Amino acid sequence: MFVATLGHSRRLHVRAFRAEKQKHRFAGLESAFTTFGVPEVLVDNPTRARGAP
Prior knowledge:
With 53 residues, the chain is of the alpha+beta class. It has one domain (2-49). Helix content is 36%, strand content 15%. It has helices at 22-36, 46-49, and strands spanning 2-5, 12-15. The chain has a two-stranded antiparallel sheet with strand order 1-2. Strand 1 and strand 2 (12-15) form a beta hairpin. The mean pLDDT is 84.
């Protein structure tokens, strides 16, 4: 289950997936950003975003 919550409004976005895989997490994030109307996402620390230690 993927859940995204906006901080101030507490608006929720929920999606269910069959497994907890990285591709599902990315799909959940993408659908949440689309639903919330986010036009662009910038990654501040790409090393951490790739999962490097």
